[in-house]
Design brief:
The protein is of the alpha+beta class and 326 residues long. The chain folds into three domains: 109 residues, no CATH class; 40 residues, no CATH class; 114 residues, no CATH class. Helices cover 45% and strands 12% of the residues. Strands 2, 3, 4, 5, 7 and 8 form a six-stranded mixed beta sheet that branches. Strands 1-6 form a two-stranded antiparallel sheet. About 8% of the residues have low confidence.
Length: 326
């Protein structure tokens, strides 16, 4: 057993898919007329059998016997409860990393004060959106989900694979595994890099200033935007932007780059702002765009999973807050 906080902060670098096996559960103990949050356990639940999680919400079980702690039946979310009125214990499992995301979207404090209303909001959402329930965390790169997500939040059009590529057995054997929606692979390294680069740039001795360097800000922004509007989203476009900024020695406002980073999805932007470090925002934004263009990164890193998860949570939030305020 370890502290739940330790597991929640863990980055599973060697085996990124491990994030998905650890979960908490909101336990509805009907016999005791009580509802509470459990600790973190490893995924063992299957239809028709009891599951077990640590009772203490501050504890996490990494491995070992699952038959300790609090036992429960999986709560019927998509179907009616045939055992309604029975005095038994049901649980609403949630990935440990997804529970952390809920704190950003709704707030743990308000959820803990209204746990029963929260479970009702969850059931209400899924009953109206059951087609989204059965998402597999791994999928072939030729799968429909992957092709739809290929559009992502930066590309104007979905990227369709050509027929001869789809028929290639080497492509058919490849698969993507959805990474953690909380810990996005590659972003932490990028954040360290752009704070270090900013400090290096601030120590540069710039002795000469060219005429193009002194262009009005609105014209400089217009010229950078023209690179994006004149060609499809590609690595060359990212590099052209870098080359222009370097050649002209322009420093565009942080607000320009932050807006292009989609901070509603990439909330690491807020973390960089909060810590107060000097950030090379151009390098962060362009580095992020380069990551998104890397083959398979959008799925494997967890950013695509985060986009889906935040969308679901925001819809549950609307239902939940409506019930709490009613």
């Amino acid at each position: 057993m370890v502290s739940s906080a330790e597991l929640e902060q863990t980055r599973f670098r060697k085996n990124p898919s491990l994030w998905s096996i650890y979960y908490r559960a909101i336990i509805d103990d009907r016999g005791a007329c009580d509802i509470y949050l459990s600790g973190i356990g490893a995924k063992t639940y299957n239809p028709g059998r009891l599951d077990h999680v640590p009772t203490n919400p501050e504890k996490a079980r990494i491995y070992g016997s699952p038959n300790k702690g609090t036992s429960f039946h999986m709560a019927p979310v998509l179907r009616s409860d045939r055992r309604r009125g029975w005095r038994y214990r049901v649980g609403y499992p949630i990935h440990a990393h997804c529970w952390m995301l809920l704190d950003r979207v709704i707030g743990h404090d308000v959820i803990m004060r209204h746990l029963r209303e929260f479970t009702r909001a969850v059931k209400a959402f899924w009953k109206g959106n059951n087609s989204s329930w059965f998402l597999k965390l791994g999928h072939p790169i030729t799968g429909e989900f992957c092709r739809k997500q290929g559009a992502n939040w930066l590309r104007p059009q979905p990227v369709e694979l050509s027929a001869h590529v789809l028929e290639d057995p080497r492509v058919q054997r490849k698969a993507h595994t959805l990474g953690s929606p909380l810990r996005i692979a590659g972003l932490q390294e990028l954040m360290v890099q752009v704070t270090r680069e900013r400090n290096v740039q601030e120590n540069k001795d710039v002795r000469a200033r060219s005429a193009i360097e002194n262009l009005p800000l609105d014209i400089a922004i217009y010229m950078v935007d023209m690179i994006y509007e004149s060609r499809p989203y590609c690595l060359e476009r990212v590099q052209d932007t870098r080359n222009l900024l370097e050649a002209a020695q322009w420093t565009l406002p942080a607000t320009y780059w932050i807006g292009r980073c989609n901070p509603q999805l990439v909330f690491e932007v807020d973390e960089l702002i909060a810590v107060g470090y000097a950030v090379d925002w151009a390098s962060f934004c362009l580095g992020l765009e380069q990551l998104v263009l890397s083959d398979g990164w959008y799925c494997n890193s967890g950013l695509g999973n985060r986009e889906r998860t935040l969308g679901i949570m925001n819809n549950i939030k609307k239902i939940f807050l409506g019930r709490v305020k009613a």
